[in-house]
Structures are given as C-alpha cells and as structure tokens.
Write a structure and sequence with these properties.
The complex is a heterodimer of chains A (about 240) and B (about 650). Chain A is built from 7 helices and 9 strands, in the order αββαβαββαβββαβαα. Chain A has about 240 residues and is α+β, with helices and mostly antiparallel strands. Chain A has a single domain, classed as 2-Layer Sandwich (BirA Bifunctional Protein, domain 2). A 7-stranded mixed beta sheet of chain A has the order 1-4-5-9-8-7-6. In chain A, a hairpin with a 4-residue loop joins β6 and β7. In chain A, α1 packs across α6. The longest helix of chain A is centred in the middle third of the chain and has 15 residues. Chain A is globular. Chain A starts with 9 loop residues before the first helix and ends with a helix. Chain B is an alpha+beta fold and about 650 residues long. Chain B has 5 domains: about 70 residues, Phenylalanyl-tRNA Synthetase, Chain B, domain 1; about 200 residues, 3-Layer(bba) Sandwich (Phenylalanyl-tRNA Synthetase, Chain B, domain 3); about 70 residues, Phenylalanyl-tRNA Synthetase, Chain B, domain 1; about 150 residues, Bira Bifunctional Protein, Domain 2 (BirA Bifunctional Protein, domain 2), CATH 3.30.930; about 80 residues, 2-Layer Sandwich (Alpha-Beta Plaits). In chain B, β28 and β29 form a beta hairpin. The mean pLDDT of chain B is about 90. Classes of the chains: A alpha+beta (about 240), B alpha+beta (about 650).
C-alpha cells in the first residue's frame, strides 16, 4: 500500500471554504477565547441576568476558585461580536467560526461541543435586505447551486427584530434541492449590544447571524450523527 | 401551546380561516407551528410561542388576537375588552412581604356553589388540550388560564380558617428548611413534600403562618376543593418571573402556571381572570359572588415609545410611509399618535409586556407587513479584510501534514482527569477540560489501529489542531495546540514511530521558517501553536481557495471487518488495474476494499499481492462466508490462467 494523502476533517474543510466565500465580499475572520467570561458570553449580548440560558443545565461553568470572574465554556460565538465592537467599533464586517459548548444531553443531533459560524456586519444603512442577500450569496456558493432564503419571526435576546432563516436550494440533484430547511437564527443587532460595544445605534445598524457548522455538514455531506465529527475515527474522517 | 380551533373561533369569529391557512399565517407572521392533530371532534394546533410573546400568547385569546392582527380584523369577542367591575369584599385580607415579588394579589369569594362534574363542552375542550377533567371548579380555573392566560387557584373557604372575621392570606419568602406540601404532579396520586432553600415565594395562611403553596409554581393540599365544598375563594395573582422560574427549575416543576408567570404576564390581568371565572362558575356551579379583594401595590403601565419612520425603514430595508407604519402598529392594539412629522408615539396594549423600545415596534411592522417582502441586497465583491493569522497558518500546517499522509481529527475538549475541573460536568468521565491534545491523539492511534485494513493504511497517522486550557495567574488561560501522532505497530509505540514524526516537524519548520519547540513522547508530538504564530508575519491574502470534492458520507458499519490476502502470479500482459477489476467483480458486495500491497516481476510474470477486506453493515460475517468468497476468487484466478501462490 503506498503512502497516500491524508484526509482533512470536514469541519476544517468547511471553515476554510466559508472563509474564502466571505473574504471575497469583505468579511474578516475573527476569533475569541473558548473559556469566556460571563460578561462577554451573556451580559454584553443583552441576555438578561436571569435568562434560562445561564442556568447550569445549559452552560458549563468554571469553578470560582479557578477564575477571577465568572467564566464559562462559551455557549456561542456571539461574544466575539461584543469583543470586536468594543475593540474596533463600527464599521464591522466579520465572521467567527469556532468551537462552542452546551451542557445538554447528547444525541444524533446534539453534541456537548460543536462548531458555530457567527456573522456580524455593522455599518451605516445596513438592513434586513443585506442579511438576506448575504446569506443567499453564501449558501449558493457553499451548496454549489442557486439558493434562496426566507425569514420568519423569531426571538433572540441579542437581536431585534429577530428572524429564523430558512433556505432552499433551487438547483441540482442534491437531496436538499427544492425543500425549505430551517438553518439558523439571525436578526438586526439589538441596540443594547451596539451600545455595549460603544457603537451609536442612531448612527449605525447591523445584522448578526449564527449557525451550526456541524449542521451545515449534515446537510452538505449527509452525515447523520453529529457526534461522528468528534470521535477521532478515521473511518469517518477518511471519507472526506 | 396547544390551541383548540373551535375555541379560537369563539374569539375571532367567521374571519378565522381554515387550519391550513391559520398555520401559514402564524408561521409567516408570528410563530412556528409544531403540528396539527385531531382530538375527538376537535382540531388542535400546536403553536410554538416565542419567549418574548409568552407573556400574552400562551392562551387562546392571545393567539386569537394575534390572528386578528395579522388578518387586520377585530375580534368578534374579546374577553380582555370589558373592564372588570368587581365588587370588593372585606372578608379577605392579604399581607404581602415583598411587593416586587408579588406585585398584585386578588381573591374572590363565591358562596353556595355545587362541586360536580363539568359540562360536556368544558370537559371536551380541556381534554382536547390534553388536560384531564377533575371537577367543575378546578376545570374552571384551568379553562380561564387557557382562555386568557391568568393562572388561578381555588380554596375551600370552610377548610381555610377565618380568624377575626377574615380569611388571612400572606405572601412571603420561605425560611430555609421550611417544608411545603404541594399537590400531586402529573400521573402521581401522592402529594409531595418540598423542602425550601429560602428563595421560594410562598402563599401562606397568615393566621397560623402555614405554607399553603409555592407562589406561581404549585398549589398545596391545604383547603383543597372536594366533592362537598360549597364556599370557595379563588386566588389570581401576579408573581415575579425570575423568582417563579428559579423555584420551578430547582424543583423540576414546570407546569402551565409557572410557565406563564416566568414570562411576565401583565399585572392588569388578574381581575380579568376573576371576572371570567366568576361568570363561568355561576354558570356551571351556581352560587353567589360575594366580592373580591384586590391588592395592587406595584402598578406598572406601558409607556409611550417614539418610533421613527426613517429608523423603521432603515432597519427593515423597506420604504413604508408614515401612514402605513402607523396603520400596522395600530393593528397590534397599540395606541399610535404622531409626535412630530416622521415620528410616531406608540403605546402597546396593556396585555403586552414586550413592547418596550423602538426596535420592538419595528419588529412588529416587519413581521406584520411580512418578512417575505424583504428584498435581498446582493453583496458586492470587496477588498478582503485582514488575514487571520491563526486560520492562515493552521490551514498551511494542515496541508503540509495531509501531504505526508496524516489525517486530521477533532476530539473532545473534555477529559476524565486533568488539571481544570468544571463546576458542572456532563458526566464523571468528562468533568475536566483538556490541558493538551496528547491523550486524545494517543487514544485515536489506539482506536484506529484496529481499522488499518479497512482504511487501507499500514500506519495510523493523525493530527489535531485545537484549543487547550491551563491555569494562569489570572485564572484559566488557553492556547492553540498541535499534536501529531504515528502508530505503526498494534501493540503500541515503537521507536520507529519517531522518524515520520521528526520528518513532519522538519517539514513544518521549513514551511513556516521557524524552529518548533516540540516534545515527542510515545509516538505523539505536541507544539504550542499560539507561541509559534505570535512570531510569524501577517500575510496579505489567504491565496486562492482549494478545489474540494463533494463527498457523500456513508455511515460506518458497526460490525467487524475481516481481511484476507491473496498473492497471484499473473502473465505480464495483465496490468494491476485489470486484475483488480476482475477481483472486484467477483468478490461480492461484502468486499468493501481491495488494496494492492506488493508487486514484483520475475521470468515474464508479475506477482501481485492484494488484501481484500470484507464487512457487512448488518451483521458480523462468519469465517465460512468469507472463505466461500475467497474460494470463488481462487477459481476465477485459475480460469484466467493465474497461479495462486
């Protein structure tokens, strides 16, 4: 047997692909810590002090003896929004692909760790139409076929208005083609989040979105159990 | 929230379209629909009410109001449109220890009722929502909650001591260790003793300071309504959302009442609940209404919010006129006036506690006008932003290692044992975060070695790039780590594993132009990439994107694979591909791969050695099955004039 090329993990393949798609339209790739303070993971994102997501059932907390301020394994990539706005202000045009953690029972569609793709675009005159156009552009490239997007009402503390995003691949013979699929939550950045980042909501507006990269993998490659991404099993990886 | 279609029609009237259209309208303009079912003769729609609307929409009136808003029509019958006029009573009193925790408390006295079975229509409606009918009084409290969203509780006034001419209620926090006996929960017949920690808000019989219920969460057995009850007190109150939620979550009691209080229903709602239940009880249980106690120390009213036409269009990407925006907001039941040209002053209807800022109203405009009307703005090519060093160099390292036959894994950030333990672990074997990647890479080498035949590889070569955690002076620190591992023998590390590792490191050093500080141990080498990247220049671009093949994944079989080797002398004119094709055609679908692992020529003939790997996705293959396939292959080889060695 000859020495062959190794196989790249589908998650990092997707991240590379996502990065190239967004780089072309002016987004920059940003990162943040996986051990994140409560301040950035929740407070700066307008998540109320008593919001259920802060509960022990949903979030992994570090022991208070180990940290100088309350710290969690980040539950989403959104804290990087807050960090970026605070450090750079507006305009902001970033994506944040990264690992996140949820303290919940695992099954074929849930894993305690997974990858999320955050997007944030804040500038003068940004509206929901920009969000829709950008997502259609992204999905059309990522799924290699013309894709349309629709919004439905939704709620997340860090956006207002908040929307649920469905996508439909219009072309190709993929299993996905022709069906509306719920893919992510998004919306216009909540004025409290802008203000927390030192940005004037009367001057700037912006959209934010967050989707599971694992879930994109389920759609793109037909992976049926998201836990397979993290087993270290080459019978999985070597198919990619 | 389960919604009975006929019940909705009571409120909406003939303007209510069929269930299919209701589903479409709610999905597009308000809430997701989890399903529609038929219970007896009732159509029931399961509406997934959003958290910000759980204050007003966890009831039939709320969903009906929402539909009327979407349809731009008025409700035929609105139970919240009539201001309740409740005669007072001085026979009941309440002492509220913390008015923030309990902003409003009402209690109504009704005498001379008859406890009996509920009428059929009431039973049917509750049963269509999955609620068991108990008796007319308890059913009435549930009915009113599902109708307008106000939770209620009924007491037997004769079992509740009347001291100094008054029934004396109290609302206070529990003392740590205080025990409350609460009603049985779904399916159980035994009441439950709950030991409090001190954060629970209690309803007490003030005359004896006896706890009689967990406020907003669960009522107690105390003075319960029974078959012989004739005089009743109905409680309808408003409790603090967080306090309710904490108690409900801690005790694992999330029931209809707590779900509603958690979402801050309007403080104006309790009298409407009383008004409605008094009428209902008179209808189905008779009796005489005596009066209501209403203590409302913390009034809260919706404030006017300025909504700019320009801001509305700027966020939604629309070009609506001021009149159009005003008309849409008015549909929600809000009061809308022009504050100045281009600015509307909007006050949400009293039952909605979620319309607090300009953006909340803008969202109403967006969803009622229709989010499907948002027009895409196609993004333009733009100058790329700054290159991310971590992504750029990580990707470069990946490509170097892939070229050397290493495959990439991503493993768990959790460990059974390490240095930093989480406060709340998923499981005892996952309670620490990883301080390095070595353990996981070693485990991957061990696990994958069992599959080398199936994978068609001789050695297992893997790497991972991932975040690891460590203690620092200021708390928990983290850095990006790279670990590379090689395993060539099944029984573990051999010194021979070091050479390919060293080669990988050398190539990486050449590519990155740095010396890597690495430690190699038992066939695994680990490098702190954050340190390496800090010294590397920031590149100008990412370069061109790679062509990536589109893969469709096939689930890994859970059953073991079996390998068999065959070595053949073949006439020179048969090249390897042709031999392989003939073997494949005859090896049955159970043969999942064939690899050529040896080849040499002698005396005009070629010797090929192939490894055939067999596996089923449905069962473990028997030795005999595989032998039969190999026998067939041997016969085919002979028919082709090949010599099996």
């Amino acid at each position: 047997m000859k020495e062959t090329q190794g196989h790249q993990h589908p998650i990092t393949q997707m991240i590379d692909e996502i990065n190239h798609i967004f780089t072309d339209i002016g987004f920059s790739f940003e990162e943040g810590p996986e051990a994140e303070t409560e301040h950035y993971n929740f407070d700066q994102l307008n998540v109320p002090k008593d919001h259920p997501s802060r509960d022990m059932q949903d979030t992994f907390w570090f022991k208070s003896k180990d940290v100088s301020e309350p710290t969690v394994l980040r539950t989403h990539t959104s804290p990087v929004q807050a960090r970026f706005l605070e450090a750079h202000g507006a305009p902001a045009k970033i994506i944040v692909p990264g690992k996140v953690f949820r303290n919940e029972a695992t099954d074929a569609t849930h894993e305690a760790q997974f990858y999320q793709l955050e997007g944030l675009h804040v500038d003068k005159g940004i509206h929901l139409g920009h969000l829709k156009g950008t997502l259609e552009y992204f999905f059309s490239k990522f799924f290699s076929g013309k894709t349309e997007v629709r919004f439905r009402p939704s709620f997340f503390p860090f956006v207002e208005p908040g929307v649920e995003v469905d996508m439909r691949l219009l072309e190709g013979d993929s299993k996905l083609a022709g069906k509306w699929i719920e893919v992510m939550g998004a919306g216009m950045v909540h004025p409290n989040v802008l203000k927390a980042g030192g940005v004037d909501p009367d001057e700037f507006s912006g959209y934010a979105f967050g989707m599971g990269i694992d879930r994109l993998g389920v759609m793109k490659y037909g992976v049926e159990d998201v836990r397979d991404f993290y087993t270290g099993d080459l019978r999985f990886v070597n198919q990619f | 929230m389960k919604v009975n279609y006929a019940w909705l029609k009571d409120y909406v009237g003939d303007a209510l379209p069929d269930t299919g259209e209701v589903t479409r309208l709610l999905t597009e303009h308000a809430f997701e629909i989890d399903g529609i079912e038929t219970v007896g003769s009732h159509a029931v729609i399961d509406v997934d009410v959003l958290p910000n609307r759980s204050s007003d929409c966890l009831c039939h009136r709320g969903i009906a109001r929402e539909l009327a808003t979407i349809l731009d029509t008025d409700l035929k019958y609105d139970p919240l449109a009539i201001t309740p006029n409740l005669a007072p009573t001085d026979q009941i009193q309440v002492t509220i220890a913390d008015t923030n925790a309990c902003p409003r408390f009402t209690a109504a006295l009704i005498t001379g009722i008859e406890v009996k079975e509920s009428p059929g229509w009431l039973k049917e409606r509750l049963e269509s929502l999955g609620q068991r009918s108990i008796n007319n009084i308890v059913d009435a409290t549930n009915y009113v909650m599902y109708a307008i969203g106000q939770p209620l509780h009924a007491y037997d006034a004769d079992l509740f001591p009347k001291v100094n001419g008054k029934w004396q209620f109290g609302v206070r926090f529990a003392a740590p260790g205080e025990v409350v006996e609460i009603l049985p929960e779904g399916g159980n017949s035994e009441s439950r003793q709950v030991e409090c920690v001190g954060t629970e808000l209690l309803i007490v019989d003030e005359s004896s300071n006896t706890p009689i219920g967990l406020a907003g969460v669960k009522g107690g057995q105390y003075a319960g309504v029974h078959a012989g009850t004739t005089n009743i007190i109905i409680e309808a109150a408003n409790f603090h959302p967080t306090i309710t939620r904490k108690t409900a979550r801690r005790l694992g009691i999330v029931i209809d009442a707590s779900k509603r209080f958690e979402n801050e229903p309007s403080r104006d709602l309790p009298p409407y609940g009383q008004y409605k239940i008094i009428k209902l009880i008179e209808d189905i249980a008779g009796g005489t209404y005596e009066g209501t106690l209403d203590v409302y120390p913390e009034p809260k009213e919706n404030l006017a919010v300025s909504v700019r036409v320009s801001k509305t269009n700027a966020l939604l990407g629309l070009e609506l006129s001021q009149a159009e925006i005003a008309a849409i907001i008015t549909r929600t039941g809000s009061t809308v006036t022009e504050a100045e040209p281009g600015v509307l002053s909007c006050t949400g209807p009293w039952e909605r506690t979620d319309l607090l800022i300009e953006e909340d109203f803008i969202e109403e405009v967006g969803r009622l006008h229709g989010l499907l009307n948002i027009v895409s703005v196609v993004p333009e090519k733009a100058a790329p932003g700054a290159v991310n060093v971590r992504q750029y160099y990580s990707e470069q390292i990946r490509q170097v290692l892939l070229a050397q036959g290493f495959s990439e894994v991503i493993t768990s950030s959790f460990q059974k044992k390490d240095t930093i333990q989480l406060q709340n672990a998923l499981a005892s074997d996952k309670s620490y975060v990883r301080s390095g990647l070595r353990k996981n890479i070693t485990a991957a080498l061990d696990a994958n070695f069992a599959h080398t035949d199936l994978l068609g590889i001789r050695a297992v070569k893997v790497f991972e790039i991932g975040t690891v955690f460590g203690k620092t002076e200021s708390g928990v620190g983290e850095h990006l780590s790279l670990a590379i591992g090689v395993r060539q023998k099944g029984n573990g590390y051999t010194p021979k594993d070091d050479a390919p590792l060293q080669a990988a490191i050398t190539t990486l050093e050449a590519q990155l132009g740095v010396t890597l500080e690495s430690t190699s141990e038992q066939g695994v080498v680990e490098v702190n990439l954050s340190e390496v990247f800090a010294s590397l220049p920031v590149p100008a671009t990412y370069g061109t994107s790679k062509e990536r093949k589109v893969t469709t994944y096939t689930a890994v079989s859970q059953y073991p694979a079996t390998a068999r080797d065959i070595a053949l002398w073949v006439p020179a004119e048969f090249e390897a591909e042709r031999v392989l094709a003939i073997l494949q055609a005859n090896a049955s679908s159970l043969c999942v791969r064939i690899d050529l692992f040896d080849q040499f020529e002698k005396d005009g003939r070629t010797s090929y050695a192939f490894r055939l790997v067999f596996q089923s996705s449905e069962r473990t293959l028997t030795d005999g099955e595989v032998t039969n396939i190999m026998d067939t292959i041997n016969q085919v080889a002979e028919q082709n004039g090949w010599e099996v060695r």
